[in-house]
């Protein structure tokens, strides 16, 4: 079942349950999918594109959440947290820190990286292999730690 079908079903369920937070998050996903479909590129929306869309939505909300928390706007921060929670349900299971470190250590040894100069090689391969399982910022942090 495609992401779009799952989201549409989720919207119906959220409407019946009068779940405002769930409805906001699901409508954001639906909107992003519609934008991707009509962007004029003519590309088919496959699983990889769907994951990128969801990651982008979560990143946007996390950035907003950080700003709201700095400004002491808890009322707006709550809304962002709720939407992040809803959107994350559609992403594959995220790797925890130890699993991520193990995978990255294996990639580093496969590439033969030994210093920070090799970070680009490692990040390129890691980004492809871990798409949807970890965000780029976390991957970058762990790679820096392992290479230094």
Keyword list:
single chain, 148 residues, mainly alpha, Hypothetical Protein Yqey, Chain: A, domain1, Arc Repressor Mutant, subunit A, 2 domains, 7 helices, 0% strand
* Number of DSSP strand runs: 0
Largest sheet: none
Unreliable sequence segments = none
The CATH C-level class name of the largest domain: Mainly Alpha
> In sequence order, what are the helices and strands, one letter per element?
HHHHHHH
Helix vs. strand class: mainly alpha
CATH architecture of the largest domain: Orthogonal Bundle
Mean of all residue-level pLDDT scores: 86
Indicate how many domains the architecture comprises: 2
How much of the sequence lies in strands comes to under 5%
Please work out how many helical segments DSSP would assign. Answer: 7
Shape: globular
Structure commentary:
The chain has 2 domains: 3-88, Hypothetical Protein Yqey, Chain: A, domain1 (Orthogonal Bundle), CATH 1.10.1510.10; 97-147, Orthogonal Bundle (Arc Repressor Mutant, subunit A). Helices cover 74% and strands 0% of the residues. It has helices spanning 3-17, 20-37, 47-70, 74-88, 97-111, 119-129, 136-147. The longest helix has 24 residues, at 47-70. The chain is globular. The mean pLDDT is 86.
């Amino acid at each position: 079942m495609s992401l779009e079908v799952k989201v549409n079903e989720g919207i119906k369920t959220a409407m019946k349950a009068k779940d405002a937070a769930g409805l906001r998050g699901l409508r954001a996903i639906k909107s992003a999918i519609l934008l991707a479909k009509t962007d004029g590129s003519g590309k088919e929306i496959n699983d990889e594109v769907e994951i990128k869309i969801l990651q982008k939505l979560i990143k946007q909300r996390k950035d907003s959440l950080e700003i709201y928390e700095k400004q002491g706007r808890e009322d707006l921060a709550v809304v962002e947290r709720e939407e992040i929670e809803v959107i994350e349900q559609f992403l594959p299971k995220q790797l925890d820190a130890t699993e991520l470190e193990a995978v990255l250590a294996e990639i580093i040894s496969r590439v033969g990286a030994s210093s920070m100069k090799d970070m680009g090689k490692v990040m390129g391969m890691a980004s492809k292999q871990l798409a949807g399982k970890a965000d780029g910022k976390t991957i970058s942090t762990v790679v820096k730690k392992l290479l230094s």
